[in-house]
Amino acid sequence: MAGAGRTELADTLFGQMRMDHGAIYRDEKRIEVGDPHDAVKQNLGYVRENRIDSGLLMNMSVTENLSISSLDKINRYKFLHRGEERELALDKIVGLDIKLNHLNQQVKYLSGGNQQKVMLGRWLAADSEVYLLDEPTQGIDVGAKAELYVQIHNLARQGKGILLISSDIQELVGLCNRILVMRDGKIIKDCKSSETSEEKIAALIS
Questions:
Q1: What is residue 70's three-state secondary structure?
Q2: The ABC transporter domain covers which part of the protein (predicted)?
Q3: What CA dihedral angle connects 52, 56, 57 and 61, to 10 degrees?
Q4: Are 161 and 140 part of one and the same domain?
Q5: Starting from the edge strand earliest in sequence, which strands make up the sheet with 161-165, in order?
Q6: Are residues 74 and 144 both part of a single domain?
Q7: CB 177 within 8 A of CB 193
Q8: Core-most of 102, 124, 138, 151, by most CB within 10 Å?
Q9: Could you tell me the residue range of the domain that residue 176 belongs to?
Q10: Are 197 and 62 in contact (CB under 8 A)?
Q11: Within a domain: 1
Q12: CA end-to-end distance (rounded Å), the chain
């Protein structure tokens, strides 16, 4: 439910906001996430709802945006290895079918769907273990949505963890095996998608 604290939860998990109390656990082990740098070290990836203001570097190239979370992998003696950066970007461009004119094209000139693919590709390149996806299909066309759904299913099959935040109930029921409903910053319902329905979820948030 919009305004329920969903995005604030994701921001906290990724270290964008500080917790007043509580702890973060992954695979039954406590992890420390004090800031986004810690989150990346803990193999967390975050596709934010507002990709323009707080996700993509709009005036930088597609290649730079795809590689920015993987610089440790492609640096050599504190120098950026441009050849490896290009290979990394090409791999994600082909794998995600990102439509662009050239590798140095600025991200701001891509369509909304392709911008969203770049955001996801950034964390795929970093080989994240847990993906925080906040409204990943918002503002993109039906075809781009379908392609992102395929990528989400692929990640799940690889054993990656996915926290999907969405106001699209059909999307939640179709993609998730577990659904948490939040209101006023608190979880008011925790259910398996196989044991609920769009109508039941809609009733909870109305």
A1: helix
A2: 1-205
A3: -120
A4: yes
A5: 44-47, 130-134, 161-165
A6: yes
A7: yes
A8: 124
A9: 169-206
A10: no
A11: no
A12: 9
Return the percentage of the chain with pLDDT > 70, whole number: 91
Which residues, at least 6 apart from 42, have a Cβ–Cβ distance to it below 8 Å? Answer: 26, 31, 32, 33
Which bin fits 181, alpha (ψ -120 to 50), beta or left (φ > 0)?
beta
- How many Å apart are CA 129 and CA 40, to the nearest integer? 10
Tokens of 15: 């270290």
Q: What is the C-alpha to C-alpha distance for residues 172 and 192, in angstroms, rounded to an integer? A: 11
Whole-number pLDDT of residue 71: 67
In this structure, the answer to whether residues 91 and 106 fall within a common structural domain is yes
Q: Are residues 34 and 68 in the same domain?
A: yes
Residues in the chain: 206
Q: How far apart are CA 123 and CA 51, in angstroms?
A: 14
CA distances from 14 to 33, 160, 193 (A): 7, 16, 25
